[in-house]
Amino acid sequence: MREISAGDIKNAVSALCIKANLYLPSDLEDCIKCSSKKEVSDTGREVFSDIIENIQIAKSENIPICQDTGMAVIFAEIGQEVHIVGGDFEEAINEGVADGYLKGYLRCSIVADPLTRVNTGNNTPAVIHTRIVKGNNIKLMVAPKGFGSENMSSLKMMTPSATADDIISFVVDTVSSAGSNPCPPIVVGVGIGGDFEYSAYLAKKALCRSVSVRNPKQLYADMENKMLDQINCLGIGPQGFGGRITALCVNIEEHPTHIAGLPVAVNIGCHVTRHAEIIL
Fold first, then answer.
1. pLDDT at residue 143 in the model
2. Cα torsion for 272, 222, 33, 176, to the nearest 10°?
3. Which of 2, 10, 116, 235 is the most exposed place for a label (fewest CB within 10 A)?
């Protein structure tokens, strides 16, 4: 049994909150630069130029890539041979989020109640997804989620008779309805299967997969490519000003489901689809 202190978890989450908000994953940054060369619209190319410049300024000036520094979403994989000492796990996560957002001068956007809407002042509580896995490590991923794109997400309980083309149409229609609101070029996460809430989890998890990695199952990899092609035929373009590149990538995650259902969730991420991780 390996001991990991709650203090180490807090410090790791704090650092990840800052890192994720200041630096894009290298694969996404490379994808943005590559996509900028494929854009045919003059205005679209100018937007891409501004996006790339913004990414570089965030790095050099140590300031957030986007003013919406997001709701802190934490994916935690805890090895079953780990014993957490010196505090409570979820308290350590939230203390880390609070420390990172205040220390990093990141915008605090969380309200304590969805209706009375009083800001908590430190961007807590976080949304925490925890899995118990083999081993004696803890893997933490912090994925700050801005709500300009989150608000454009969708979920549909399809019937088992729905085809791959029906799913593709639903995803493309969701992006079409979103228009410029999610700050394209976007990353699209799609969750297929599970139940109502698990399909949404899968879609969020899909946004955290590298944009350079396709689904290992050929059926879903083909669907990812078809969705991306159809989305990029919509003409929405960078920041909604028209053009070829509306989406940078589509990632699908799937899970077994009930014989009577076919849940499909779409979680949209803006071009600042951020995440950072560490293994303790």
1. 98
2. -50
3. 116
